[in-house]
């Protein structure tokens, strides 16, 4: 027990935790297990948020009127803080329009296209019989582009998220059901804090106007999304 406490006290990161700690049966994870889980955490926990941020910056460069509204919202929050005062949870709740913009960016460019489910019973869908046990891939792109739920689906329109009552399971950037992304609130925090700081400090323009998006599991700009940053005068920046 004492040894366990000593071990726990030196664990400061997830890699050390996976190397040092045994499961309830006393078994340690092997190298392959650890590597697989770390890659999953890096892609799932980091690349998703950075992809969403890239998409938001792309759309803000393309739609100056949307940038202006985000800037206004974020500048009001910045102005309500004292010099050097960090952002807090209440500030995040005020970022309503900014979050609608992030949602619309993730609707059109979901960081994760979809994942798998296993059919736990036989069922019919769209005339196809799906046998129990089959693996099924659900896809956010097709769901997010269904005009029944998102009229004029190719249009970038953050106001869709101002209306109440999205049909359940139609907007699924974080998945849905019991395996829904457990990092979604943290992801929201990372994206909004970044947006707050970048918008309060800069406006920007795309340097490759028609840059393509390629899919490297997550949507990725083909040229690395070069931008020209234009600093605002009197920029205000807050950490969290
Ligand atoms: C914008 C940011 C993010 C997006 C769009 C996103 C998206 C997703 C999606 C679509 C799934 C599959 C859900 C399902 O099958 O129903 C998922 C699962 C998961 N995500 Fe995220 N994620 C984000 C951020 C994060 C962060 C920051 C973390 C952790 C620090 C994280 C950890 C996980 C984990 C562990 C799972 C697997 C959950 C399970 O299978 O039970 N995600 N995420």
What does this structure look like?
With 240 residues, the chain is of the alpha+beta class. It contains 8 helices and 8 strands, in the order ααααααββββααββββ. Strand 2 and strand 3 form a beta hairpin. Protoporphyrin IX containing FE (HEM) binds next to helix 3 and helix 8.
Shape: globular
CATH top level of the domain at 2-108 and 181-231 is Mainly Alpha
Tally of individual helices: 8
Question: How far is the N terminus from the C terminus?
Answer: 37 Å
> What's the architecture of the domain at 2-108 and 181-231, going by CATH?
Orthogonal Bundle
Largest sheet: spatial strand order: 1-4
CATH homologous superfamily identity of the domain at 2-108 and 181-231: Cytochrome P450
Radius of gyration, CA atoms, in whole angstroms: 21 Å
- Cofactors and ligands: protoporphyrin IX containing FE
Could you list the spans in which at least 5 consecutive residues all have pLDDT below 50?
none
- CATH topology assignment of the domain at 2-108 and 181-231: Cytochrome p450
What is the chain-wise order of helices and strands? HHHHHHEEEEHHEEEE
Total beta strands: 8
- What class do helices, strands and sheet pairing give? alpha+beta
Q: What share of the residues lie within helices?
A: 40-55%
Mean pLDDT score, rounded?
92
Largest pleated sheet:
2 strands, antiparallel
Beta-strand percent range: 5-15%
